[in-house]
Design brief:
Layout (H helix, E strand, L loop, with lengths): L26 E6 L7 H11 L2 E6 L2 H11 L7 E4 L2 H9 L3 E2 L4 H6 L12 E13 L22 E2 L6 H14 L1 H13 L9 H10 L4 E5 H9 L7 H5 L1 E4 L9 E10 L5 H11 L2 H11 L2 E2 L8 H4 L11 H6 L1 H11 L3
Parallel strand pairs: 1-2, 1-3, 6-7
Antiparallel strand pairs: 3-9, 4-9, 5-7, 5-8, 5-9, 5-10
Amino acid sequence: MTLSKLTVATIALAATAAPTLALAEGELNLYSSRHYDTDERLYSDFTEATGITINRIEGKADELLTRMQAEGANSPADILLTVDTSRLARARDMGLLQSADSDILEQRIPSYLQDADNQWFGFSQRARIIFYDKTEVENPPRDYVSLADPAYKGMVCHRSSSNVYSQTLLAAVIENHGEDAARTWAQGVVDNFARAPQGGDTDQLRGLVSGECDISISNTYYFARALRRDVKGLDSDAMAGIGWVFPAQGAEGAHMNLSGGGIAAHAPNRENAVKFLEYLASDQAQQYFSAGNDEYPAVPGVGLSPSVAALGFFQADDVNLSEVAANVPTAQKIFNEVGWE
């Protein structure tokens, strides 16, 4: 939880030299639940650098896992990319991934952002932080635990318990504070809801603008995206009224959601799959994650886009994300117990 572990590139951190990709022949079959148009640049530059053609299958993470399981040993998948740790851990537990033997990945991706057996690696991050209406909230919560403070009764908007971001946040609270404290926290947040859980992260920000709530939780890249370009309901005037807090500074730090990937268990093009993961850890690809999709790079020392850098410096929670993922079933049980819809 030290500042040296932040994935904020404006801090002068020495990054391992970026890998040089040698030209190779062949194809790569990519199964991805990332749905961002800006990722096109990642794929085209990889092909240009290596000569490897990328064939893509895109869908929701659970659908891709079910497909890979059904395909079994005949699956054409070489790489699985998804946008949350719990799905990566589930893919590993289902036997859908294999270990990647790569010194480049080991050196460039921090240990707490990779699977203990090298079956998946994180390549970009989003901080899940507190946003608030600056005209209505004089003293916003400074950590996640404070969201349950009765002082904020009727003020909090949040996503539903079925959302993976909600699940991993509570799973992190379990890891950092224990199951009993997490249950008390979840009940307190439910008691403070301004409305029933609904919508996506952008809707939580819109709730602040509409006056439906005064405090909400969202991943940083939704807010940074609205800083960079027009987003419906979040024009420049609306954005000016929203403040933000990076929670638990000086304690565990801000919770980070991870986007990452691994090599499919039966990858027919394993060598090309390793090259692709190594490319995602390169400075060039890491910069695309920030510039194209307003995410934080996983590799320390890589430059941030202006919209991301505008959010400022912060201390990130460096809790082991494999352990967080293991807490997700307990988190869902707690959600059910406290009536978090």
